[in-house]
């Protein structure tokens, strides 16, 4: 999944403006284990980068396809490839089997959303006030802290 890390950029910093969120920020991609443990955080890309474009540029889509890894993703990743499962697009009325598939898909993805919640729980990343070049380093530091085993 992808998330926007809000920043305090100014209006002229157009690449960092996310039309979807209506704010400036940096896009970070997250790969999580089925239990919600964050496995990998990407380097940050400008906020206007679409999630699927970011996943392709980081090589996530190709790596999963090559290794035949089944990925559960949100609708932003539709068309990513054979191993990426996304929910059905919401038309006005869906057949009951599509509705059930979407419910099951959401239930299975819920633990993976926990990785994003853990990332966003860091106050430093709720609204980054540093250089956009440093956000990727901060995300990697947070990932290290989240995955460290402190039991000595």
Quick recap of the structure?
This protein is an alpha+beta fold.
List strands and helices in order, with pairings.
Elements (H helix, E strand, L loop, with lengths): L1 E5 L10 E2 L4 E10 L5 E4 L3 E2 L4 H7 L2 H7 L4 E2 L11 E2 L10 H25 L11 H16 L5
Parallel strand pairs: 6-7
Antiparallel strand pairs: 1-3, 2-3, 3-4, 3-5
Based on the model shown, name its key terms:
36% helix; 4 helices; 152 residues; two-stranded parallel ribbon; alpha+beta; five-stranded antiparallel beta sheet
Q: Mean pLDDT across all residues, rounded?
A: 85
Outline type: globular
Largest sheet: 5 strands, antiparallel
Identify low-pLDDT runs: none
Helix fraction?
A: 25-40%
Secondary-structure-based class equals alpha+beta
Give the CA-CA distance, first to last residue: 32 Å
How many H/I helical runs?
A: 4
Overview of this protein structure:
The protein has one domain (2-147). The model has no long low-confidence stretch (mean pLDDT 85). The protein is built from four helices and seven strands, in the order βββββααββαα. It is of the alpha+beta class. It has helices spanning 51-57, 60-66, 96-120, 132-147, and strands at residues 2-6, 17-18, 23-32, 38-41, 45-46, 71-72, 84-85. Strands 1, 2, 3, 4 and 5 form a five-stranded antiparallel beta sheet that branches. A two-stranded parallel ribbon has the order 6-7.
